[in-house]
Design a protein that fits this description.
The protein is built from 10 helices and no strands. By secondary structure, it is mostly helical. The radius of gyration is 21 Å and the shape is globular.
Length: about 260
């Protein structure tokens, strides 16, 4: 929750700060200040592993899935938004739950940034956004009962919409600092509705086509490979004993002489 609150402030400060706020006067410093989110996210990952009771098998699965997602990113990055990594994060979050999903998304983006050389002030924002994307899949309803075609439609629908949401949220990380025209640029003294309208116009003009490619690839891979991968993930989850409930039994009565 703390990482999420800081993330909302990091992305949404152009709309949260009042027009006369001094934040706008220091807009050029914001990317470096918010780069400190990386430290907080690493702390979240470490705390989750240490405090949530993840066993060695679960930690190993986290590493394997993060490595697989990082390896998938170079296959499509830079080509019309074709990013198969999001498909793996979608299914993993569905099976492993929201908490594990948030950690997995953040770790995967960190590993892929190291692999592709994409380390920079934007990386903490990417880690947060992919963590939210994967966590959202874990929050979808009926994780224990919904199966088959209905589950695939649910995942495909969420993946399609969340792919656009990912692109829109990531645009907030850089949009306020770009020198753009008066119709699509951020203006520190403008009202929230005016800046929101500028941002929507900026998103439609620059990112909609890219995000459409990501959304379509996610949907297609969900229907084609989803059934097989969901079964494999659920089988591995059972063997790793995720979320094993703790039960207590009453001790056997002791017969005492009267």
């Amino acid at each position: 929750m703390l990482a999420g609150a800081v993330g909302v402030a990091a992305f949404g400060w152009p709309f949260l700060a009042p027009p006369d706020s001094q934040v706008g006067a220091h807009a050029q410093d914001a990317p470096w200040l918010f780069a400190g989110l990386l430290v907080l996210l690493v702390a979240v990952v470490a705390a989750t592993i240490a405090e949530s009771g993840l066993g060695p098998k679960a930690v190993a699965m986290l590493g394997v899935l993060a490595a697989a997602g990082a390896a998938l990113r170079p296959l499509g990055a830079g080509t019309a938004g074709l990013e198969p990594m999001f498909f793996l994060m979608l299914l993993s979050g569905r099976v492993l739950g929201p908490g594990f999903g948030f950690v997995l998304g953040s770790v995967t983006m960190f590993a892929s940034a190291l692999l592709t050389g994409g380390v920079g002030p934007w990386m903490p924002f990417q880690m947060l956004t992919l963590g939210w994307f994967t966590m959202g899949a874990g929050l979808l309803p009926f994780p224990d009962r919904l199966r088959g075609r209905a589950e695939l439609w649910l995942l495909a629908g969420y993946g399609f919409l969340a792919a656009f949401a990912y692109g829109a949220v990531m645009n907030l990380a850089g949009w306020p600092f770009m020198s753009l025209g008066s119709d699509i640029g951020f203006h520190a003294g403008a009202s929230v509705p005016a800046n929101l309208a500028h941002f929507v116009a900026y998103y439609l003009a620059t990112s909609l086509g890219w995000d459409l490619g990501r959304a379509l690839v996610t949907v297609v891979l969900t229907f084609v490979l989803g059934p097989t991968l969901l079964k494999a993930l659920r089988r591995a989850t059972r063997r790793a004993a995720f979320e094993t409930p703790v039960t207590f039994e009453d001790p056997a009565p002791v017969n005492r002489p009267t």
